[in-house]
Design goal:
Blueprint: H1 2-10, H2 16-25, H3 33-47, H4 50-60, H5 66-92, H6 95-99, H7 107-110, H8 116-130, H9 133-145, H10 150-170
Helix pairs in contact: 1-2, 1-4, 2-10, 3-4, 3-5, 3-8, 3-10, 5-8, 8-9, 8-10
Length: 171
């Protein structure tokens, strides 16, 4: 975690809790290394903080394969689109919009480069950052349905929360 550690050390003293959390959420636990670093890449991208994205990507290459990293990047991009669209439909709450087809290309979602459950985990974490209730519920259901546990969901969302906080603290 050389690059992330360097970024962690650049956080101000007022973000001491975030420094500690950033270190702890990227340690081995319920999530595999692929899941941890794929989630970290996807959520760092969702924060749109270039230094955070660069550091996480650099360290992720030592812990996750190309397929996981590609899936994480695709999840961040697709959820950047889907979370806006589906959050709009949910917030407006008019049946007329819910009846209309999205007509937005989402082919990667059906055939990710790596593990489908892991891709869903990345999508969930990005959707949590973007605040799309419909997408969070949909991806959580898919994750649990694929055989992963609520601990996997919980840990992925913890990574999302800390990545968002790190981006805010970095300014």
């Amino acid at each position: 975690m050389e690059h992330v550690d360097k970024l962690r050390n650049a956080l101000p003293d007022s973000a001491r809790d975030i420094k500690l959390n950033l270190q702890s959420v990227l340690q081995p636990g319920t999530l595999s290394a692929e899941q941890t670093w794929g989630t970290a890449v996807a959520t760092a991208m969702a924060t749109r903080h270039p230094d955070l994205v660069e550091a996480v990507l650099a360290d992720a290459r030592a812990h996750a394969g190309d397929a996981s990293i590609q899936d994480a990047q695709a999840a961040a991009a697709l959820m950047g689109m889907n979370n806006v669209y589906y959050r709009f439909r949910h917030v407006v709450g008019k049946g007329a919009y819910s009846q209309k087809p999205a007509r937005l290309r989402m082919g990667w979602m059906g055939k990710p480069a790596g593990n489908k459950a892991d891709f869903e985990l990345y999508c969930l974490a990005v959707s949590a950052i973007n605040g799309c209730e419909a997408c969070v519920k949909s991806h959580e259901e898919a994750i649990i349905g694929s055989g992963l546990s609520d601990e996997h969901v919980h840990d992925a969302v913890r990574i999302a929360a800390v990545m968002q906080a790190a981006a805010v603290a970095l300014g």
